[in-house]
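If you are new to this repository, start here. Below is one unmodified record pulled from the training split, so you can see the exact layout before writing a loader.
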Amino acid sequence: MLSLEEVCKRIQSADAEVMHRVWKIWDNKCIPLRSLDWLQETLVRIAGVQRTTRPSVERKLTIVMAADNGVIAEGVSQSDYHVTTQVVENMLHRRATIALMSEKAGSDFLVADMGMKEKVEGVLNLSRMRGTDNIACGPAMSRETAAAAIEAGANLALEKAAEGYRLLSTGEMGIGNTTSSSAVLAVLSGRRAADVTGRGAGLSGEGLERKIRTIEKAIALNQPNSKDAIDVLSKVGGLDIAGLTGVFLGAAAAGVPVVIDGFIASVAALLAKQLAPAALDGMIASHCSKEPGAVLALNMLGLKPVIYGNFHLGEGSGAVLLFSMLDQVFHLYEELPSFEEGKIETYIPLK
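And here is the target side for that same chain:
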């Protein structure tokens, strides 16, 4: 097990020389210059992170972090922790959304218990506590627990990279996690809770107002330091967010890119960026979710997603949708002829 400090020390920026060479290869392919824009740019970044002009995303894995949030005691969700348990069980029996989508995409997934109220047989156990405490009454967890959860996620990513996975994606499952994510984003951005908080899996207007008031109360009570990612995470965050933060860091340390799923994963990405700015190079935004804070979180990361579908399902579903698009552009990079081979006059950049 590497410590958080050791993981962060291993993280390097993407290789600029490799990216330059890959752009030159693209610009000699038999298509209009930069005509696939986002997809070409994403392949270039993946090449820079993997530090090779022959990048690969052949083996893909979605890591689903499952955890429960004590803040549901405030009535901020229409469900309770039993739903977390049931959905995770469905994942294991390949009856959940992420399982079926991964099967269709030809990718793998795993579920890690980062802090579920109830244990589920067959789930990878990385739990540090059985659900967070209620942030409206005090910190979600201790600083030590938050750091340990990040380290657990980071070491899991490193382990999977060592097994040969060349692309990871982030998923989560946990009732109440849009509340903790909105609280974290409100602190990191300095925005009002009302500006970054949505209905989650489904709240009435009254329920949304209660959720906003709960977040405001939690921030006022716990006074998290926006410049200290672990302080924010421990005071108003969640264990699934902590695990995902670790995945971004561990993958970056291993030179493996990570697809960001939705709102919760975007918030975790912000925390990872604060802990190790170079980790941002390997982050790929898949979609912009329906949650109000989603656009803000992605803007703070400086990332533009390719899918705008108003999704708010979670589990890593949006990230897996991106896999087939990435497979297509990687196939083109390998198989498209050059202008000379395709007997087409070379395109020249317009000035």
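Two things worth knowing about this chain: Residues 62-323 form a domain with the Rossmann fold fold (CATH 3.40.50.10210). The first strand starts at residue 60 and ends at 67.
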